Amino acid sequence: MKLYNSLTRTKDDFYTHTPGRVEMYTCGPTVYHFAHIGNLRSYIMEDVLEKYLGYIGYDVNRVMNITDVGHLTSDGDSGDDKMLKGAKRENKTVMEIAKFYTDAFFTDCCKLNIKKPNTVVPATTYIGEFIKVIKSLVDKDYAYLAGGNVYFDTSKLEKYHVFNDFDEEDLAVGVREGVEADGNKKNKSDFVLWFTKSKFDSQELKWDSPWGIGYPGWHIECSCISMKNNGEYLDLHCGGIDNAFPHHTNEIAQSEAYLGHEWCPQWFHVRHLNTDGGKMSKSKGEFLTVSLLEQKGYDPIVYRFFCLQSHYRKSLVFSYENLDNANAAYQKLIAKIVPLLSASGDVNEARFGELKANFTEAMDNDLNTSLAITALYDVLKSDADSQTKLALVKDFDKVLSLNLIENAQKAAAPKEIELPDEITALLAERREARKAKNFALADEIRDKIVAMGYSVEETRQGTVVKPIK
Ligand code: AMP
Ligand code: ZN
Q: pLDDT at position 176, please?
C-alpha cells in the first residue's frame, strides 16, 4: 500500500517497524464542546485507514488521547484553556464538561460507524507520566524554566520545522497577528511543556510538580500517551491538517529529544471540511453537528458516504445541497443492492478476486475512497452473478462501514402503513369497547372502519388494518 507521508511529501510504501503490526496514534478531541462535522471528517478518514490496514492483514494497535486539559484558545501558548472556556460557558466544572462531551463524541462516532480505538486516554489521568518526561527533557537540557513555566528549547534541534517549506519566521508562534509574544521564550518557536500558577490563575485543574503547582501544555500529552501505549517506535500518526503545526511539530521535537532516536516515520493528515463561508467553526454561523444533521432528517451514514466520496487530501466543502446529492446517490446505491439480498449459492471465487482487485488497487493508492466507491458501483454494474456481487458488497463494507446490507434490508422490508387519524381514533374506541366486553359496539365500530375502505383482521400479532385495494 502507498500512503502519502507529510514528512517526506511523497506517496511512500507503507512501512511498519514490526512486520504485520501497526502502532497507530490519533490526536483525540478537545472535549469542551460537541465535535463539529469537520472534526468528524478527520475521524471518519482515520477510521477507514485503520479498517483498511486490518483488511489487508495488519494487526493494528490504535491509541487516542482525550484533551481535557492544556489546549489553549490559540494553538500556541496564549489564551485560556479551552476546557475552562467550556466550563464557564455552561456553569459547570471542567470535569463535568469533559465527561459530557467525551460521551457525546463517542455517541457521534458510533452513529458514523467510527470504531473506538483500542486505547483511549484522557490527558488528566497521565499527569505523572508528563512530569516524568518533562523532567527528563530538563535534565537533558532540552527544556528550561522561565517565568514559572517550563519551555522546550527548539534551538537545540538540528531541524524543528519538519512538515513545511514555509518561512520559519512566519511560522514562529508569537509573531502571528493577534498573538502576544511571550517574553519568557528564548526562541520564538519555543513552546510550553508545563505552566505554573504564575500564569492563568483561573485554571481550575492544577497538579503539583517539581516546578510548582500547575498544568501541562497540550503537545506533551500526545507524545507521552503514545510512547506509553504504542511503545518507543510509532508507525503512523494521524490528525487533521491544522495539527501539523504547531502541535505535531512539537510532538516530534519533544518525543525525539526524549527518546534519542527517530519516533514516527509516517504522518497522515486529513484536509479540512469547510463551509461555503470558509473555515468551520463552533462559534460562528450554524454549528454543524451530527445531531443537527439528524434533526434535519439525514441519516449520519449519509455524511460518512459524503466524506468517502472525496479524497482525504483534498479540502471538502460542506453544503446541504452537496449532502442532498450524496443522499440521493446513497439511496440509489442501496436500491441496487436490494435485489441481491435473496441471492444464494456458491460465490464465483475468480470473479470475486478480479472485482475485489479494483477496490484494493484504489485503496492501496493513498486511500482513494472515492475510486473505491466507483469499484463498488462497477461490481453492481458487472455481469457477475448475484451471490458474488452480494459477497463483494459485504466485503467492501468491512472497510467502508456504510451499513449497505442493513439499509438494503430496511429498504426491502414492507413499509408500515400510515393510517388516517380518524381510523386510529376509531381503533382506540374499538379497543376500549372490547376491553369493556361491549362486543356489539366493537362490531359496530369495525363496520364503520370497513365502510371507510379498510379491512380489519385479528391476527396473533394483534389487529391488522389495511386499506382495501
Ligand atoms: P480538536 O477537538 O480541536 O482538538 O480537533 C479534533 C480533530 O479535528 C483534530 O485532528 C483536528 O485537526 C481536526 N479538525 C479540526 N477542524 C477540522 C475541519 N474543519 N476539518 C477536518 N478536520 C478538522
Ligand atoms: Zn495530538
A: 44
For the chain, the domains span 2-270, 283-412, 421-467
Surrounding ion ligand 2 within 5 Å at CB are 27, 222
Question: Is the CATH number 3.40.50.620 carried by domain 2-270?
Answer: yes
Whole-number Å distance, alpha carbon 336 to ligand 1 midpoint, is: 35
Strands 214-216 and 149-152: unpaired
Residue from 134, 101, 121, 102 nearest 217 by CA: 134
- Centre of ligand 2 to C-alpha 99, Å, is 19
Q: What is the pTM of this model?
A: 0.88
Residues facing 239 on adjacent strands: 269
Quickly name the fold that domain 283-412 has.
Answer: Four Helix Bundle (Hemerythrin (Met), subunit A) (1.20.120)
Confidence of residue 60 (pLDDT cuts 50, 70, 90): very high
Is residue 413 predicted with pLDDT exceeding 60? yes
User: CB under 6 Å to ligand 1: residues?
Assistant: 27, 29-30, 38-39, 41-42, 67, 239-240, 242-243, 270, 272-273, 280
**Residue 201: per-residue pLDDT:** 64
Q: What angle do CA 83, 89, 90 make, to 5 degrees?
A: 95
Testing ligand 1's pocket by substitution, the residue of 65, 72, 242, 282 carrying the most ligand atoms inside 8 A of its CB is 242
**pLDDT above 50: residue 428:** yes
